[in-house]
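Allow me, if you will, to draw on your knowledge of protein folds for a short while. I have a record of one protein: its chain in single-letter code and its fold written as discrete structure tokens. Kindly check, if you would, that the fold set down in the tokens agrees with what the sequence suggests. Thank you for your consideration; the sequence and its tokens are set out here:
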Amino acid sequence: MKQKRPSRSVLALVLIGLPVLLALVGPFVAGPSGPRSVSFASPEGHWLGTDFSGRDVWHQVLLGGRSVVLVAIAATALAYLVALPLGLTAALTRRTWLEETLMRPLDVVIAVPSLLLVLLVAATLTPGPAGLTVLVGLAAVPDAARVVHAAAVEIASRPAVEALRMQGESWWRTAVGYVARSMRRTLAADAGIRLTGALYLVATAAFLGAGVQPDAADWAVMVDRNRTGLFLQPWAVVVPALLIAALSMGTNLLFDAVLQRHGPRKGATR
């Protein structure tokens, strides 16, 4: 069993590393776009062929990752930036009315599907990448906050937390120094799911034309606009789709490997 953990970690890093590397470095090495050729063809000099408008597929792949990868990562970070203090405050307060005030409105937002919420706002305001990041991040806040709250409530009931309060420790030391550190495994597991969900929302929004231009260099847009020529020039669809899938799968594999490697020791006490 111990020999399988490194292999899973290596596989996860490879799956994550390729799309992230293309997203970060791709725009700097792509160079200027060349002249357009025949749509859905494989002319000389275009080793992945051309897309629906005759553009080089590889050039579009190099340019199209940043809008998907960076927006999803930034949206996940934004979600926790809001959800962590919200969930910790609701869990550690001794005022029931404050806990209800903080958590009950989230139930209303959760009732609305995240994708529908993102599409409705995006269709109305036509945001750019920054606006899409905020939309996706805020759409993930209710679920993330409830996970944080549920985990923090159990930890807040421990005698150690009451001892910290009796010693006059600050809220920051109690909430972040003890409660948040005690729930880091829960947060790590949820972060993998949350990043995958953000990738889904960003890619689906782009696939449906929300938040990006219809001819933008974007992996999700490439899948959408080139699917009509899938059987003529499959690389224009297969390559960006595989890159999105690799990032999603690699993220979950990496978090699983980390959680298994740093799992609680046998006989460990709280």
